[in-house]
Amino acid sequence: MGGASARLLLCYELLLEHFGPQGWWPGEPGFPMAVGAILTQNTAWINVERALERLREGGPISVPRVADIDLDELQDLIRPAGYFRQKSLYLKEFSLYLQQAHAGSLESLLRQPLALARAELLGRRGIGPETADAILLYAMNHPTFVVDAYAIRWLGRVGLDVPHSGYEGVRSFFLANLPSDPALFNEYHALLVALGKHYCRKNKPVCPECPLRKECPTGLCAIDAWQGVP
Hints:
By secondary structure, the chain is an all-alpha fold. It folds into two domains: 3-23 and 146-220, Endonuclease Iii, domain 2, CATH 1.10.1670; 31-140, Orthogonal Bundle (Endonuclease III, domain 1). It is 63% helix and 0% strand. It has 13 helices and no strands. The protein has helices at 3-19, 31-39, 45-56, 63-68, 71-77, 84-102, 106-110, 114-122, 129-140, 149-158, 166-177, 182-198, 217-227. The protein starts with a helix and ends with a helix.
Protein backbone atom coordinates (compact mmCIF):
# COMPACT_ATOMS: atom_id res chain seq x y z
CA MET A 1 0.00 0.00 0.00
CA GLY A 2 1.34 3.41 -0.96
CA GLY A 3 0.17 6.94 -1.62
CA ALA A 4 -3.35 5.95 -2.59
CA SER A 5 -3.74 4.03 0.65
CA ALA A 6 -2.55 6.96 2.75
CA ARG A 7 -4.94 9.34 1.00
CA LEU A 8 -7.88 6.97 1.33
CA LEU A 9 -7.24 6.54 5.05
CA LEU A 10 -6.79 10.28 5.58
CA CYS A 11 -10.08 10.98 3.82
CA TYR A 12 -11.75 8.30 5.92
CA GLU A 13 -10.54 9.91 9.14
CA LEU A 14 -11.71 13.34 8.01
CA LEU A 15 -15.13 12.00 7.07
CA LEU A 16 -15.47 10.10 10.34
CA GLU A 17 -14.50 13.20 12.31
CA HIS A 18 -17.05 15.29 10.42
CA PHE A 19 -20.04 12.94 10.23
CA GLY A 20 -19.39 10.54 13.09
CA PRO A 21 -20.20 6.79 12.97
CA GLN A 22 -23.14 6.08 10.69
CA GLY A 23 -24.36 2.88 12.35
CA TRP A 24 -25.09 1.02 9.14
CA TRP A 25 -26.91 -1.13 7.99
CA PRO A 26 -29.96 1.09 8.62
CA GLY A 27 -32.35 -1.84 9.09
CA GLU A 28 -32.79 -5.32 10.53
CA PRO A 29 -29.95 -7.85 10.12
CA GLY A 30 -30.13 -11.19 8.34
CA PHE A 31 -32.71 -11.89 5.65
CA PRO A 32 -34.59 -8.59 6.16
CA MET A 33 -31.29 -6.84 5.40
CA ALA A 34 -31.05 -8.72 2.09
CA VAL A 35 -34.65 -7.79 1.29
CA GLY A 36 -33.79 -4.15 1.95
CA ALA A 37 -30.70 -4.38 -0.26
CA ILE A 38 -32.84 -5.58 -3.16
CA LEU A 39 -35.59 -3.04 -2.54
CA THR A 40 -33.19 -0.08 -2.37
CA GLN A 41 -32.15 -0.50 -5.99
CA ASN A 42 -32.98 2.71 -7.89
CA THR A 43 -34.82 4.33 -5.01
CA ALA A 44 -34.24 6.29 -1.80
CA TRP A 45 -33.97 4.45 1.51
CA ILE A 46 -36.99 6.27 2.91
CA ASN A 47 -39.12 4.49 0.30
CA VAL A 48 -37.57 1.16 1.27
CA GLU A 49 -38.45 1.81 4.92
CA ARG A 50 -42.08 2.33 3.97
CA ALA A 51 -42.09 -0.93 2.00
CA LEU A 52 -40.44 -2.84 4.86
CA GLU A 53 -42.96 -1.45 7.34
CA ARG A 54 -45.80 -2.70 5.14
CA LEU A 55 -44.15 -6.12 4.92
CA ARG A 56 -43.75 -6.31 8.71
CA GLU A 57 -47.44 -5.62 9.27
CA GLY A 58 -48.22 -9.19 8.22
CA GLY A 59 -45.49 -10.77 10.35
CA PRO A 60 -41.70 -11.15 10.46
CA ILE A 61 -39.83 -10.77 7.18
CA SER A 62 -38.60 -14.33 6.68
CA VAL A 63 -37.64 -16.63 3.83
CA PRO A 64 -40.73 -18.89 4.18
CA ARG A 65 -43.11 -15.94 4.35
CA VAL A 66 -41.74 -14.23 1.24
CA ALA A 67 -41.59 -17.55 -0.60
CA ASP A 68 -45.20 -18.39 0.24
CA ILE A 69 -46.86 -14.98 -0.07
CA ASP A 70 -49.07 -14.37 -3.09
CA LEU A 71 -47.15 -12.47 -5.76
CA ASP A 72 -49.86 -9.83 -6.21
CA GLU A 73 -49.93 -9.23 -2.46
CA LEU A 74 -46.14 -8.95 -2.36
CA GLN A 75 -46.21 -6.42 -5.17
CA ASP A 76 -48.75 -4.32 -3.32
CA LEU A 77 -46.77 -4.42 -0.07
CA ILE A 78 -43.48 -3.29 -1.62
CA ARG A 79 -45.06 -0.75 -3.98
CA PRO A 80 -43.51 2.26 -2.13
CA ALA A 81 -40.02 1.04 -3.12
CA GLY A 82 -40.76 1.43 -6.83
CA TYR A 83 -40.24 -1.11 -9.64
CA PHE A 84 -42.42 -3.32 -7.47
CA ARG A 85 -43.24 -5.85 -10.19
CA GLN A 86 -39.57 -6.58 -10.91
CA LYS A 87 -38.50 -6.49 -7.28
CA SER A 88 -41.32 -8.79 -6.18
CA LEU A 89 -40.08 -11.39 -8.67
CA TYR A 90 -36.50 -10.98 -7.45
CA LEU A 91 -37.56 -11.44 -3.82
CA LYS A 92 -39.82 -14.38 -4.59
CA GLU A 93 -37.20 -16.19 -6.69
CA PHE A 94 -34.43 -15.54 -4.16
CA SER A 95 -36.56 -16.85 -1.30
CA LEU A 96 -37.52 -19.99 -3.23
CA TYR A 97 -33.87 -20.52 -4.15
CA LEU A 98 -32.80 -20.27 -0.50
CA GLN A 99 -35.43 -22.84 0.43
CA GLN A 100 -34.29 -25.24 -2.28
CA ALA A 101 -30.51 -24.79 -2.03
CA HIS A 102 -29.94 -23.79 1.60
CA ALA A 103 -32.92 -25.10 3.59
CA GLY A 104 -34.28 -21.56 3.77
CA SER A 105 -31.14 -20.16 5.40
CA LEU A 106 -29.44 -17.05 4.04
CA GLU A 107 -26.71 -17.60 6.63
CA SER A 108 -25.94 -20.99 5.06
CA LEU A 109 -25.20 -19.29 1.76
CA LEU A 110 -23.18 -16.50 3.35
CA ARG A 111 -21.08 -18.81 5.56
CA GLN A 112 -19.22 -19.95 2.46
CA PRO A 113 -15.89 -18.36 1.52
CA LEU A 114 -16.35 -14.86 0.14
CA ALA A 115 -15.65 -15.71 -3.51
CA LEU A 116 -18.09 -18.64 -3.51
CA ALA A 117 -20.85 -16.77 -1.69
CA ARG A 118 -20.44 -13.75 -3.96
CA ALA A 119 -20.58 -15.87 -7.12
CA GLU A 120 -23.72 -17.61 -5.88
CA LEU A 121 -25.44 -14.31 -5.09
CA LEU A 122 -24.48 -12.89 -8.48
CA GLY A 123 -26.11 -15.92 -10.08
CA ARG A 124 -29.50 -14.86 -8.75
CA ARG A 125 -31.73 -12.66 -10.90
CA GLY A 126 -31.95 -9.11 -9.58
CA ILE A 127 -28.76 -9.30 -7.50
CA GLY A 128 -25.96 -7.35 -9.14
CA PRO A 129 -22.49 -6.58 -7.75
CA GLU A 130 -23.55 -3.67 -5.52
CA THR A 131 -26.45 -5.60 -3.98
CA ALA A 132 -24.34 -8.74 -3.56
CA ASP A 133 -21.53 -6.87 -1.82
CA ALA A 134 -24.00 -5.06 0.44
CA ILE A 135 -25.49 -8.39 1.54
CA LEU A 136 -22.05 -9.95 2.04
CA LEU A 137 -20.70 -7.02 4.04
CA TYR A 138 -23.70 -6.01 6.12
CA ALA A 139 -25.34 -9.40 6.68
CA MET A 140 -22.18 -11.50 7.28
CA ASN A 141 -19.25 -9.09 7.73
CA HIS A 142 -17.40 -10.41 4.70
CA PRO A 143 -14.47 -8.12 3.80
CA THR A 144 -15.83 -6.68 0.57
CA PHE A 145 -16.34 -3.05 -0.44
CA VAL A 146 -19.70 -1.76 -1.65
CA VAL A 147 -19.29 0.55 -4.63
CA ASP A 148 -22.10 2.94 -5.52
CA ALA A 149 -22.60 6.11 -7.53
CA TYR A 150 -21.46 8.23 -4.58
CA ALA A 151 -18.10 6.44 -4.37
CA ILE A 152 -17.51 6.57 -8.13
CA ARG A 153 -18.37 10.28 -8.26
CA TRP A 154 -16.05 11.10 -5.37
CA LEU A 155 -13.13 9.14 -6.81
CA GLY A 156 -13.53 11.00 -10.09
CA ARG A 157 -13.29 14.34 -8.30
CA VAL A 158 -10.68 13.66 -5.62
CA GLY A 159 -7.96 12.83 -8.13
CA LEU A 160 -7.11 9.28 -7.06
CA ASP A 161 -5.77 7.19 -9.93
CA VAL A 162 -8.04 4.17 -10.31
CA PRO A 163 -6.35 1.81 -12.83
CA HIS A 164 -9.56 0.16 -14.04
CA SER A 165 -13.01 1.68 -14.41
CA GLY A 166 -16.35 0.04 -13.81
CA TYR A 167 -17.70 -1.53 -10.66
CA GLU A 168 -15.12 -4.29 -10.31
CA GLY A 169 -12.23 -1.94 -11.04
CA VAL A 170 -13.30 0.52 -8.35
CA ARG A 171 -14.01 -2.29 -5.87
CA SER A 172 -10.55 -3.76 -6.51
CA PHE A 173 -9.00 -0.33 -5.96
CA PHE A 174 -10.55 0.01 -2.51
CA LEU A 175 -9.71 -3.58 -1.56
CA ALA A 176 -6.09 -3.17 -2.67
CA ASN A 177 -5.53 0.13 -0.88
CA LEU A 178 -7.33 -0.36 2.43
CA PRO A 179 -6.76 -2.83 5.27
CA SER A 180 -9.02 -5.88 4.89
CA ASP A 181 -11.37 -4.85 7.68
CA PRO A 182 -15.16 -5.30 7.33
CA ALA A 183 -15.82 -2.63 9.97
CA LEU A 184 -13.73 -0.14 7.99
CA PHE A 185 -15.46 -1.05 4.71
CA ASN A 186 -18.85 -0.75 6.40
CA GLU A 187 -18.17 2.70 7.80
CA TYR A 188 -16.35 4.04 4.74
CA HIS A 189 -19.20 3.12 2.42
CA ALA A 190 -21.74 4.77 4.73
CA LEU A 191 -19.58 7.89 5.07
CA LEU A 192 -19.24 8.24 1.30
CA VAL A 193 -23.03 8.07 1.02
CA ALA A 194 -23.28 10.89 3.58
CA LEU A 195 -20.64 12.87 1.69
CA GLY A 196 -22.46 12.42 -1.61
CA LYS A 197 -25.80 13.47 -0.17
CA HIS A 198 -24.59 16.54 1.69
CA TYR A 199 -21.59 17.88 -0.24
CA CYS A 200 -20.30 15.89 -3.23
CA ARG A 201 -23.56 16.17 -5.11
CA LYS A 202 -23.98 15.25 -8.75
CA ASN A 203 -25.06 18.77 -9.61
CA LYS A 204 -23.86 21.85 -7.73
CA PRO A 205 -21.47 20.22 -5.24
CA VAL A 206 -20.98 22.17 -2.03
CA CYS A 207 -17.17 22.28 -2.20
CA PRO A 208 -16.49 25.28 0.11
CA GLU A 209 -18.11 23.46 3.05
CA CYS A 210 -16.94 19.92 2.23
CA PRO A 211 -14.84 18.21 4.95
CA LEU A 212 -12.50 16.93 2.20
CA ARG A 213 -12.09 20.26 0.42
CA LYS A 214 -8.36 20.51 1.20
CA GLU A 215 -7.71 16.99 -0.12
CA CYS A 216 -9.69 17.32 -3.34
CA PRO A 217 -8.33 19.07 -6.47
CA THR A 218 -11.87 19.58 -7.75
CA GLY A 219 -12.86 21.15 -4.47
CA LEU A 220 -9.81 23.43 -4.36
CA CYS A 221 -10.50 24.65 -7.89
CA ALA A 222 -14.13 25.28 -7.02
CA ILE A 223 -13.13 27.23 -3.90
CA ASP A 224 -10.67 29.35 -5.90
CA ALA A 225 -13.41 30.13 -8.41
CA TRP A 226 -15.85 30.92 -5.60
CA GLN A 227 -13.31 33.29 -4.01
CA GLY A 228 -12.47 34.88 -7.34
CA VAL A 229 -8.87 33.61 -7.44
CA PRO A 230 -7.56 33.82 -11.04
